[in-house]
Write a structure and sequence with these properties.
Elements lengths: L2 H8 L7 H13 L4 H7 L5 H14 L19 H13 L5 H12 L5 H10 L4 H26 L5 E9 L30 E7 L4 E8 L4 H13 L9 H4 L2 E5 L6 H9 L3 E5 L4 H4 L2 H15 L1 H4 L4 H10 L3 H10 L12
Parallel strand pairs: 1-4, 4-5
Antiparallel strand pairs: 1-2, 2-3
Helix pairs in contact: 2-4, 6-7, 9-11, 13-15, 13-16
């Protein structure tokens, strides 16, 4: 072996073919073998050579050398900022296509890249399905911790008013499960109650009761949400009580697309604040999703025989009125929101 061949081997050069270099990457990064184990498997390849091959792979997404290019590194399409953007984009939308990611990168940075560059960058960053799921879960936990810390640093459950919408039809009158013999699919003979007459309800929940609600046939839009929400928080009570926006300094809602800016401007003009629950955390941090709506469904199913002859809006009104103060505080307790009175507030 010549001195030049030895140097090439130490630099990950042509003395080691692409197959050997890819084996080093596979054994070190996928199988998590040590450099000593890889050296035993691949005919004594040194630790320094393994480190150079791994660095080349992490920098370029491949194991090709720079020989024949004047010793200069090839043009890097992805820098550190683009890598961070790609990682965040994958976590935000794991199912997006490579072409869609390339279009987003062009709109954000003005950098036009081919889908193959996106693919190589994702492989270099080792964005596998399991790792993306793990990182997304970690990011959700961090967002949840920051949101909870900020909310509970300034407010207690007595200061919070939760706003969210739900949709119900007459199918809610019966439970959606059946019984059957083992090994046989369940058979439903009674199909009179079909999915029709769907009604959406926009609800305001405090730790005392369901404060107010508005009905809308079909689904709420941005315009109908702003109109209904503004009318609820600014309405003076029949007993002369102050509007909801004056009684509750914090309005809590999720970040649905229909929750537009007009409602938030109305709250800010009245001296209140709107806090949005981070994505994917509403089932954990929204007292409506994490308790109240379930109590509504349970009440309707428990009194289904009596409520079956009533119109849907009357059914929902009675179910909303059934939520008393202990039930409302239980919903806030599920979300770990504490009272200014300590544990006795629960």
């Amino acid at each position: 072996m010549t001195v030049m061949s030895t140097l090439h081997r130490q630099a990950g050069g042509p003395a080691y073919g692409p197959e050997i270099r890819w084996r080093v990457v596979w054994k070190r990064l996928v199988l998590n073998l040590s450099s000593r184990e890889v050296s035993e498997h691949l005919d004594g390849i040194t630790d320094q050579t393994q480190a150079l091959i791994l660095r080349r792979f992490l920098e370029t997404g491949g194991v090709d050398t720079w020989q024949g290019q004047g010793g200069q590194r090839p043009h890097q399409v992805f820098d550190a900022d683009a890598d961070i953007w790609l990682l965040c984009d994958v976590l935000d939308d794991p199912t997006a296509t490579l072409q869609l990611r390339a279009d987003r990168l062009l709109l954000r940075t003005g950098r036009e890249v081919h889908v193959s560059s996106i693919c190589r960058a994702m492989r270099r960053l080792m964005l596998s399905r399991q790792k993306v799921q793990h990182w997304a879960a970690q990011r959700d936990e961090m967002a949840d911790a920051w949101f909870f810390l900020e909310l509970m640093s300034f407010y207690t459950m007595e200061d919070i008013l939760v706003i969210d919408e739900t949709s119900k039809d007459r199918d809610v009158l019966r439970q959606s499960f059946g019984w059957s013999a083992r090994g046989c699919p369940p058979v439903v003979d009674y199909l009179e109650l079909s999915r029709d007459g769907r009604l959406s309800a926009l609800c305001c929940l405090s730790c005392v009761q369901m404060e107010d609600w508005r009905f809308n046939p079909g689904t709420y839009t941005t315009e109908s949400f702003d109109e209904a929400a503004c009318s609820m928080i600014t309405r003076v009570g029949a007993d002369g009580r102050q509007p909801l926006v004056s009684r509750f300094p914090c309005i809590l809602m999720d970040n649905a697309s229909i929750h537009g800016g007009i409602f938030e401007q109305e709250v800010m003009a009245a001296g209140g604040r709107v806090m949005r629950i981070p994505p994917y955390l509403a089932p954990k941090r929204s007292p409506l999703d994490n308790g109240a709506f379930g109590l509504v469904v349970r009440y309707i199913q428990r009194h289904a025989q009596r409520l079956a002859s009533m119109p849907m809006h009357a059914v929902l009104e009675e179910a909303f009125l059934s939520i008393d103060e202990p039930s409302a505080r239980w919903c806030f307790h599920n979300c770990m929101y504490y009272s200014r009175y300590g544990q006795q507030g629960f």
